[in-house]
Design goal:
Blueprint lengths: L11 H14 L12 H6 L8 E4 L1 E3 L7 E3 H13 L3 E3 L1 H12 L10 E7 L3 H14 L3 E5 L13 H8 L4 E5 L7 H5 L4 H23 L5 E3 L7 H9 L4 E3 L18 E2 L8
Parallel strand pairs: 1-5, 1-10, 2-3, 4-5, 5-6, 6-7, 8-9
The protein binds zinc ion.
Zinc ion (ZN) binds next to loops.
């Protein structure tokens, strides 16, 4: 996600809140459930919302706020398994959400959890993917193509192709070069910004589709930043849904082009 300097999400208060939210997300929502009680949450709301988790980097030690220690990640996976969380793909969550919007009486599986990872870090290939493959758990990777086979920290296209060959792995769009859209808008006329955003949306999708040969229909906003105008542009560009950051599990009342995801950081305490 690369939280930008000066953004509200960079404050100490927001980081502390993120840890609390992540802790709740990692327990399928069963801890810290709403005041109406754990039983009600488990029997009703649980099939109408699911925590969508977002990971970034993995390493032996946590060098920065976006890096999760590999041992901690493994412990988190064990805990999700011990709690009988049911991993569903992001596309399954979207299909459920679209079915609801179309008037169907659709429900998620109980204790559903969705895994995503952003930015195409190489450690997702080296550390994260083998652990998820062992468990048979699906994940959606949001990448920005300008970094792939280019930035030193990023995966290569052959590595992404290797991952995407697994039907449990989906590679989707994080725009073309991970722009801070709100900052870019401050530098441009409205028309120029509209063209800039449209280009980021379509160039990213077209590049991933061309390189990997599968449809790209989902978007994660860089830095989690968007607004109604950008949401409309994402829909115009053909995206089915777009994902942001937020302090709640994702349910039917969340806007389809600003669906919240829980940021998972190393300071999530499993004790
Ligand atoms: Zn990002």
């Amino acid at each position: 996600m690369n939280i930008p300097a000066g953004a509200p999400s960079n404050s100490a208060a927001r980081v502390g809140g993120a840890v609390d939210r992540a802790r709740r997300a990692l327990t399928c929502g069963l801890v810290g459930a709403p005041a109406f009680g754990r039983a009600a949450f488990a029997t009703t709301a649980q099939t109408h919302r699911a925590p969508i988790l977002v990971f970034h980097r993995f390493a032996a030690t946590a060098m920065d706020s976006m890096t999760l220690r590999a041992a901690n990640f493994e412990a988190q996976l064990r805990m999700l398994a011990n709690l009988s969380c049911r991993m569903i793909s992001l596309s399954e969550w979207v299909a459920w959400r679209l079915a609801l919007a179309a008037g169907a009486d659709a429900m998620l599986p109980p204790r559903a959890v969705v895994l995503t990872a952003d930015d195409g870090h190489r450690s997702q290939y080296e550390v994260m993917a083998p652990l998820l493959r062992d468990r048979g758990w699906p994940i959606t990777l949001f990448v920005y193509p300008s970094a792939i086979s280019n930035a030193s920290y990023a995966m290569t296209w052959p590595q992404l192709r290797d991952l995407a060959a697994d039907p449990l792995v989906s590679v989707q769009s994080h725009m073309y070069w991970h722009p801070n859209l709100l900052r870019e808008r401050g530098h441009m006329t409205p028309d120029a910004f509209h063209r800039f955003a449209a280009n980021q949306l379509t160039r990213s999708r077209d590049t991933i589709e061309q390189r990997l040969g599968h449809p790209v229909t989902l978007l994660a906003w860089p830095f989690g930043l968007s607004d109604d105008g950008l949401a409309a542009q994402a829909a115009e560009a053909g995206y089915q849904a777009a994902f942001s950051l937020g302090n709640r599990s994702a349910g039917p009342s969340d806007p389809l082009y600003a669906v919240p995801r829980h940021l998972i950081v190393d300071s999530v305490d499993l004790g």
